[in-house]
Amino acid sequence: MAVYTEVPDEDLAAFLAAYDVGEAVSFKGIAEGVENSNYLLVTTTDRFILTLYEKRVERGDLPFFLGLLEHLSARGLTCPQPVKARDGSVLKELCGRPAAMVTFLDGVWVRRPTPEHCAELGHALAALHEAGRGFPLKRPNALSVDGWLALAATARGRSDAVTPGLDALIAQELDHLAPAFAGLDLPSGVIHADLFPNNVFFLGDRLSGLIDFYFACDDAYAYDLAICLNAWCFDPDGGYDPAKGAALLAAYHAARPLSEAEIAAFPTLARGAAIRFLLTRLVDWLDTPPGAMVQKLDPLEYLAKLRFHQQAESVAAYGWTAP
Ligand SMILES: Nc1ncnc2c1ncn2[C@@H]1O[C@H](COP(=O)(O)OP(=O)(O)OP(=O)(O)O)[C@@H](O)[C@H]1O
Ligand SMILES: N[C@@H](CCO)C(=O)O
Does ligand 1 have an atom closer than 6 angstroms to the CB of 33? Predict the structure, then answer.
């Protein structure tokens, strides 16, 4: 469930009075998502998503997220566009929470991505990286090496309850990744950092929009590509699908050619991307009280992905070589 804050009708009407969007016709909570309270709002003029930012989103980060959506939309990327109130602001308050309205995007997310979907994704990810250039605000990636070490410390001594040996495996992997990441100097800029299938909309076979920029930050572009490979290119049974990986990498490379350094670093980046989601899922798994109405995501899915990447000696392991 992702409606943590219920909005009374009179509060909604007072909120909407600050905008030129007409009056509410319908207002429904959206069950999908876990971070924030999201509502689908239909007014006499259009459809919008109204989001109340809950405790996991830092208030200080909201100008980065909302400003980024404006920057990307202005450069032709199809992503939610923040709606300005009559006073020009995009961030307001509703029911004691920071709140913003964004435009509604048509499309549905694909449960079973094909290589064709992965190719569309590769193209869109490169377009996102290009469109992000020149965005003036900065947000370091809180979920890079230092964030992984902090999460691992939180889970230490408890992860073996999820699967035996997990504590030691995480410690060994971080011993490998911390110096490996410190030695990287790759092209960087704004990345999405959470571009999973549920954040990418399609109309038919064509990608129609990207959503959920609440992990966006500054980091290596190829790390974003590695996050996508993990999220899109493994089959439901856990096996890596080289046709999907090749489609993703080739489409990205055609739109934003990867450097030799990015290609050489790819297995390391993929390991980093795997431990990042392994750790956040693990800590959520350990710390979410039984019965909480939040979907718990499986950390072991990412342990299997990590093991796959540990065997990869070069990008060829992903079914692709640079042309
Ligand atoms: N601009 C939009 N247009 C259409 N639908 C949207 C839009 N933004 C969000 N949604 C819908 O709301 C759902 C939840 O949104 P979102 O993924 O941003 O939530 P969240 O709480 O940040 O969740 P999570 O981080 O877990 O994915 C999406 O799956 C989608 O169905
Ligand atoms: N995409 C994340 C969850 C929410 O951001 C995951 O699958 O672990």
Answer: yes
